[in-house]
Amino acid sequence: MPHLIVASKNPVKINAAKAAFERAFPDQSFTVTGVAVLSGVPDQPRSDAETHRGAINRAKAALSNRPDGDFFVGMEGGVEKLDHAWRAFAWMVVMDKSGKMGMGRTGEFILPQAIGELLDTGMELGPADDQVFGLTNSKQSRGAVGILTNGVIDRAKYYEPALVFALIPWLRPDLYPSI
Predict the structure, then answer these.
(1) With b meaning 16 or more CB within 10 Å and e meaning fewer, what string describes 124-153?
(2) Are 95 and 169 in contact (CB under 8 A)?
(3) What's the rounded Cα separation, in Å, for the pair 157 and 65?
(4) How many whole angstroms separate alpha carbon 129 and alpha carbon 89?
(5) pTM tops 0.90
(6) What fold is seen in the domain 3-109+153-171?
C-alpha cells in the first residue's frame, strides 16, 4: 500500500490528499501521514510565486523528514492583490522518491472587501475569515472557499482537483518521462 506523506498536520489537507490519490488511482489504497514542516515562505504567502515556492518547499521538506514515504505532498494557500482586490488560491505539489514532481493550482476567487482590509493590515486569511464571520479556526474546516460558497465547495473539495492535476505525470507517465 503506497504511503503518502502530507506536509501538514491539518486534517483538511490530509483528507484532500487521500481523496485525490484514491480518485486518481481507484484500484489502490493509500496510507497517509501528516508531518509538520516549514514552508520557507511567510505564514501567509502574498503572491502566486511565493505560494508556489512554499508548496515546493513543503513537498521537499516532507521527503527530507520522512524518506520512508512513496509520495510527498506540499500544499500552500496564498493571496495576492490584483486590480485593488485580494484573491485567494492554492498550489499543490506532489513528489516521489526519485524527485519526479507534478504541480497543480486551484482556481482563484475574489475575497470580500472586509477580509481584504484585514489582509492589508498584515493579517492572515484564516484569522481574517474568523474575525469577519465570527468563527474559530475555520482554516481547519471549511476555509474561506467553504464560507463564501455557503458550503457548496469546502476547502478539501477545492484542493482535490488541483491535487489530481499534480498527479498527471504519474497518470500519464508516457507523456512525462523526464519530469
Answers:
(1) bbbebbbebeeeeebbebbbbbbbbeeeeb
(2) no
(3) 27
(4) 15
(5) yes
(6) Maf protein (3.90.950)
